[in-house]
Design brief:
Layout lengths: L2 H18 L4 H16 L3 H10 L8 H14 L2 H13 L5 H17 L2 H18 L4 H12 L9 H9 L5 H7 L1 H22 L9 H27 L4 H20 L6 H32 L2 H12 L3 H18 L2 H18 L4 H16 L6 H10 L3 H24 L2 H11 L2
Helix pairs in contact: 1-2, 2-14, 3-14, 4-7, 4-13, 4-14, 5-6, 5-12, 6-7, 6-8, 6-11, 7-8, 7-19, 8-19, 8-20, 9-17, 9-18, 10-21, 11-20, 12-13, 14-17, 15-17, 16-17, 16-18, 17-18, 18-20
Length: 432
């Protein structure tokens, strides 16, 4: 056996062995990278330099700003106002509060880009309200968990920025636009599933609002929703970059939360900054570690071997896409999102280029797979958060979540096999 093959075995066996032993993914990545590097006699300084280069990018500045903006809005009452706007729009239909939950998650995902923050804020409000209205707790949690995963696809997802950089510097604006239609399709598919289940179980409709009440709700919630317009219009028109839009969104959310709504004291900002720093430290540490892991993979020419292996199975585009989706779905069940994006992107980009797939479309396919993984055991962070908020064992949720999985998989297949679903808006507004 060649030294390259032995090093590849050491790399992957060490990594997955440590993951099975429940060591944090960052440490697993670093340990496996260093172990393979020692075997190959690669200078340790070179490995750590590669890790540092993984986060040494101006575009990465957008990530802390988006995280901070999401934390500010999640801590304030913007989520409550978004729930009221969603209730005004869809609350009167069958399964009212469940439909509100999905639409509110769409709004919140377009502001915060964080599925976990969505579960904590929107779920924290709506799960108890749904139970009071007679909804089963497992159903309430399943709706919350699956709809929160929209934040992976609805812009401004910071995971889109990570993918754009991992893929060699794709346009963040195009990535944002590419996620709009798939994100809305996911929301619509979940609403349809919710409608049929609510009809079958005879769940109640919500209340109707008078014109006066509707105007008050819209007036109260419009300022929070303006964040979406600031980010999308600014980035897609080229008026400012994704990083600049994130900074502006941060300032805007700070002013709206502390000086317009004024529902939390200014001293809370210190707590928000500490939470943001902790989250950012975890995200950047994982990205740096994953970048070192990717460099060793490139050194071993693993992306080239993976491309040849997949193309040797079949040269049929549709078969290869099914295999890639299965591969990503399995990995999404056992690994966190950020390292998966950084590790799998350089491996799979050569394959999708061989079959003529647009990298922007592939980015949305990748994020759709990882969104499903976020609400799938054993490592589904959103599923864990939803069960914690809903105070219910994970096992009790799993049977009822299957129809929601089916809806998510249908959207995934549409994004995979119909390029226009993800590419229509970016091609229309920013050119092919």
């Amino acid at each position: 056996m060649s030294s390259t093959a032995i090093a590849a075995i050491i790399l992957f066996v060490t990594f997955f062995g440590l993951i099975i032993l429940r060591l944090p993914v960052t440490f697993s990545l670093v340990a496996s990278t260093l172990t393979a590097g020692f075997y190959l006699q690669v200078p340790i300084v070179a490995i750590f330099q590669r890790m540092g280069q993984g986060v040494y990018s101006f575009s990465f500045l957008a990530i802390p700003f988006f995280i901070l903006a999401g934390e500010i809005m999640a801590t304030g009452s913007i989520s409550t106002r978004l729930v009221k706007v969603a209730d005004l729009i869809v609350g009167r239909f069958v399964g009212g509060f469940a439909q509100v939950n999905i639409l509110a998650s769409t709004f919140f995902g377009a502001i915060s880009g964080s599925a976990t923050a969505d579960v904590a804020s929107v779920g924290g409000i709506l799960i108890p309200m749904m139970e009071e209205q007679g909804y089963d707790r497992d159903f309430s949690v399943n709706v919350t968990v699956t709809s929160a995963c929209q934040s992976m696809i609805i812009p401004p997802s910071h995971n889109m920025i990570i993918f754009a950089l991992a893929a060699g510097g794709l346009s963040t604006g195009k990535m944002f636009l590419a996620g709009v239609v798939p994100g809305l399709l996911l929301a619509l598919s979940l609403m349809m599933v919710t409608y049929f289940i609510a009809k079958k179980r005879n769940y109640p409709k919500g209340d109707r609002y008078s014109m006066k009440e509707a105007l008050i709700i819209i007036k109260d919630g419009i300022l929070g929703m303006m964040t979406i317009a600031i980010i999308m219009i600014g980035v897609t028109t080229g008026f400012f970059t994704a990083t600049e839009s994130a900074a502006i969104a941060c300032i805007y959310s700070f002013i709206i939360t502390f000086f317009v709504y004024r529902d939390i004291p200014l001293k809370t900002m210190w707590v928000i900054l500490k939470r943001t720093t902790r989250t950012l430290a975890m995200v950047l540490a994982v990205i740096a570690a994953a970048n070192g892991f990717c460099w060793i993979m490139s050194y071993l020419r693993i992306p080239e071997m993976a491309t040849q292996a997949l193309l040797s199975i079949s040269d049929n585009k549709y078969v290869l896409l099914i295999l890639i989706n299965i591969f990503l779905l399995v990995l999404g069940c056992i690994m966190d999102v950020a390292p998966l994006i950084v590790i799998t992107t350089p491996v799979l980009i050569p394959v999708i280029q061989q079959i003529g797939m647009n990298p922007i479309q592939f980015g949305i396919v990748l994020l759709c797979n990882l969104a499903i993984g976020m609400c799938t055991p054993p490592v589904g962070a959103t599923l864990f958060a939803g069960c914690a908020v809903g105070k219910i064992p994970m096992e009790k949720c799993m049977k009822g979540i299957i129809p929601f999985y089916a809806a998510m998989v249908i959207v995934l297949l549409l994004v995979t096999y119909v390029p226009a679903v993800s590419l229509f808006l970016p091609n229309l507004l920013m050119g092919a």
